[in-house]
From TrEMBL:
Record-linked PANTHER family: XANTHINE/URACIL PERMEASE C887.17-RELATED, XANTHINE_URACIL PERMEASE C887.17-RELATED
Membrane topology field: Multi-pass membrane protein
Name this protein carries in UniProt: Permease
Family (UniProt): Belongs to the nucleobase:cation symporter-2 (NCS2) (TC 2.A.40) family. Azg-like subfamily.
GO molecular-function terms, A-Z: purine nucleobase transmembrane transporter activity
Keyword Membrane: yes
Pfam families for this protein: Xan_ur_permease
Species assigned in the record: Pontibacter flavimaris
Keyword field contains Transmembrane helix: yes
Main location: membrane
Length: 433
């Protein structure tokens, strides 16, 4: 273990790596509940998605540790699961089986791009302000989903959107949001997960002590059960391999790729995990692992897997090698058998977590030069159109097209690369489909 993970060379030891792995897991474990909650709204069984979430998180994190030897956990990504449910399935009318097929094909393409190193050209083609804006826009979208799940934001015929009535359910959400925020601010390990558990306990009296439309919000279904493998190989590979699904595949590929790259770069810079060339350590192997995670997700029944920025918690605890990821990955396994217990957690209990994840994801906007308007306007459009159109795809498309149009008419055509012109072609094609 010492020689394989090069513990001494990285100024760490087995004890430190184990503690770091546990820390990263606690920061990431909320996805075990949140991912099934979101994908269940696409018509998928909660227990089946939970099993798929655990499988993807376990296998991919362990692969990251053993193959890429980086202290980064991999699990189904926030934003990607929102796109799967609300844009692809509910928005475009694609069945969840076809959406799983699109996840698989995006993973295959990502894997090929990683193996042949074509990703470098694509990364350079996407303007940095747009990358930051899209990440922030997805964060706003996730926050909107959380507020809607909590019925804090409701439909209003007069104003399109409005604030919900102050019911016991909404008060429970607000209390859960406050407590979860306090835990996060105080840097409590597993704060988001503890917030979900706290809000679940608060939700129990709803429909019992008060008359609400959430009765019964929580029903006891036991604790242990065999894993639900009903979603394994349920993807539709044939119908997902057609021109009409290209925008879905591209959106999965784009979001997954840049989310992973930005995560690896950020974590590597923060923890000084750079190679001799000044690039993130083992970046090609790390991205290959990420691509395998997405391909696996399509096969077992989940939205795409991606590297988790919450791994920074473990890195701050001293994790520097792949042993951290192996420990964190192994900790996902017991949850294969806890579907009945976890299915008791209502959507209102995960809503505070969604709101706070949105707060984390909006940070990149500080890197945009808001005084350079030919950069700022396309970035702004991309960021706001994602939540306002309830479509990640639309935000990405109009961000690309507006960037290109402004650069061309202001005499800065050289800032639009050939690769971006090709991406624009697919963006326009997506609007016509």
């Amino acid at each position: 273990m010492e020689s394989y993970f090069q513990l001494r060379q990285n100024n760490t030891n087995v004890k430190t790596e184990i503690i770091a792995g546990i820390s990263s897991f606690l920061a990431t474990a909320y996805i075990i509940v949140v991912n099934p909650t979101i994908l269940a709204q696409a018509g998928m069984p909660f227990s089946g998605v939970l099993t798929a979430t655990v499988l993807v998180s376990f296998f991919s994190s362990v692969m990251m540790g053993l193959y890429a030897r980086n202290p980064v956990l991999v699990a189904p990504g926030m934003g990607l699961n929102a796109f799967f449910t609300f844009s692809a399935v509910l928005g475009m009318g694609v069945t969840w089986q076809v959406a799983l097929g699109a996840v698989f094909w995006s993973g295959v393409v990502f894997l090929l791009l990683s193996l042949f190193n074509i990703r470098t050209m694509i990364v350079r083609a996407i303007p940095r302000p747009l990358r930051f804006a899209i990440a922030a826009g997805i964060g706003l979208f996730i926050t909107l989903v959380g507020l809607i799940n909590a019925k804090f934001i409701v439909a209003n015929p007069a104003t399109v959107l409005g604030v919900g009535a102050l019911t016991p359910a909404l008060l429970t959400f607000l209390a859960g949001l406050l407590v979860t925020s306090i835990l996060v601010v105080r840097n409590v390990k597993g704060g988001i997960l503890l917030g979900i558990l706290f809000t679940t306990l608060l939700s129990y009296p709803l429909g019992r002590w008060w008359a609400t439309d959430l009765d019964p919000l929580i029903s006891w279904q036991g604790v242990l059960a065999a894993p639900d493998f009903s979603l394994v190989l349920e993807l539709d590979l044939v119908n997902s391999f057609q021109l009409a699904i290209v925008p879905v595949v591209f959106a999965f590929l784009f979001t997954d790729m840049f989310d992973s790259i930005s995560t690896f770069v950020g974590l590597a810079e923060a923890a000084d995990l750079m190679d001799e060339h000044g690039e993130p350590r083992n970046i090609q192997r790390s991205l290959t692992t990420d691509a395998v995670a997405t391909t696996l997700a399509g096969l077992v029944g989940s939205s795409p897997g991606t590297a988790y920025v919450e791994s920074a918690v473990g890195i701050e605890a001293g994790g520097r090698t792949g042993l951290t990821a192996v420990v964190g990955g192994l900790l996902f396994l017991p949850f294969l058998f806890l579907a009945p217990l976890l299915s008791m957690i209502p959507a209102i209990a995960t809503a505070p977590a969604l709101v706070l994840v949105g707060a984390f994801m909006i940070r990149p906007v500080t890197k945009i030069d808001w005084f350079k308007m030919d950069d700022a306007l396309p970035a702004f459009l991309a960021m706001v159109l994602i939540p306002f159109t309830y479509s990640i795809t639309q935000g990405i498309i109009w961000g690309f097209l507006s960037w290109t149009a402004l650069k061309v008419v202001t005499g800065k055509r050289k800032e639009v690369s050939l690769a971006l012109w090709i991406i624009n072609f697919f963006a326009i094609l997506a609007l016509m489909l």
